[in-house]
């Protein structure tokens, strides 16, 4: 056999696919995580009189005082 007959194309060898499997699986997992986060947690409404200030969600002092006066009520 000559050297040209023994040489196989790179895609026919197992080592490139084995080395690429880790990064490809990581990229696929990243895409799945981003899609799930966008579909399930993108725009959740703020309830119970809370106020959003940037990334922090807090209740105003007036709402906390009203909640303290009415301990038996259930809010939805």
Number of E strands: 2
* Strand arrangement in the largest pleated sheet: 1-2
Overall 3D form? rod-shaped
Q: Tell me the span between the first and last alpha carbons.
A: 79 Å
Percentage beta strand: 5-15%
Largest sheet geometry: 2 strands, antiparallel
User: Which structural class fits the helix and strand makeup?
Assistant: mainly alpha
Q: What share of the residues lie within helices? A: 40-55%
Notable characteristics:
about 80 residues, mainly alpha, two-stranded antiparallel sheet, 2 strands, about 55% helix, rod-shaped
Question: What does this molecule look like?
Answer:
The protein has a two-stranded antiparallel ribbon with strand order 1-2. The longest helix is centred in the middle third of the chain and has 28 residues, at 14-41. The model has no long low-confidence stretch (mean pLDDT 79). 54% of the residues lie in helices and 8% in strands. The radius of gyration is 28 Å and the shape is rod-shaped. It has 3 helices and 2 strands. The protein is mainly alpha-helical and 76 residues long.
Produce a short descriptive summary.
The protein is mainly α. The chain has helices at 3-6, 14-41, 61-69; strands at 51-53, 56-58.
């Amino acid at each position: 056999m000559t050297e040209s007959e023994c040489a196989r194309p790179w895609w026919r060898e197992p080592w490139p696919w084995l080395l690429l499997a880790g990064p490809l699986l990581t990229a696929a997992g990243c895409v799945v995580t981003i899609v799930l986060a966008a579909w399930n947690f993108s725009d959740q409404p703020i309830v119970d009189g809370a106020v959003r200030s940037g990334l922090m969600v807090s209740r105003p002092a007036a709402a906390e005082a009203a909640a303290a006066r009415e301990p038996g009520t259930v809010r939805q």
